[in-house]
Amino acid sequence: MEILSSRMILRPADYDAALEFYGTTLGLAIAREYPGGTVFFAGQGLVEIAAHGDTGSSSDPQRFRGALWLQVRDVYAAQDELVASGVTVVREARAEPWGLHELWIADPDGIPVVLVQIPPEHPIRRDVR
Q1: Which of 40, 48, 53, 104 could serve as 91's disulfide partner, Cβ 3.0–4.6 Å?
Q2: CB 61 within 8 A of CB 70
Q3: Would residue 117 count as lying in a domain?
Q4: Residue 82 lies inside a defined structural domain of this protein
Q5: Burial class of residue 51 (count of CB atoms within 10 Å of its CB; 0-12, 13-18, 19+)
Q6: What's the CATH code of the domain at 77?
Q7: pTM reported for the whole predicted model
Q8: What is the full per-residue pLDDT of the chain (129 aa) written as tens digits?
């Protein structure tokens, strides 16, 4: 499986405080914004702050509330490869309403890993400037 890009996705309890911390305190530049989220440049990687999606009910402040996002060329082929290797699929590959194709698995510690295929017509692939 070939990984094309990656990012860390955080789903903070306080979206505005996270934006202030990553954007102002750490001084990360904005890579792009979308309704309900902001993606920051972080060296050679990206950190995405999402205002949605935290499904955890734990009040443990040390609990990771996010996911590792890995872009692949073909998420359906990646699913076949992972299943053949014995990886448990948390959610099968499928087209999402926002236009991406996603497959969800988890690492041995339960950290979500989202494998993503970006179709050619998706806005992430187009420069909207």
Answers
A1: 104
A2: no
A3: yes
A4: yes
A5: middle
A6: 3.10.180.10
A7: 0.69
A8: 888 888 888 888 888 988 998 898 888 999 999 988 999 998 888 888 888 655 555 555 555 677 888 889 999 999 999 999 999 999 999 999 989 999 998 887 787 889 999 998 888 777 655
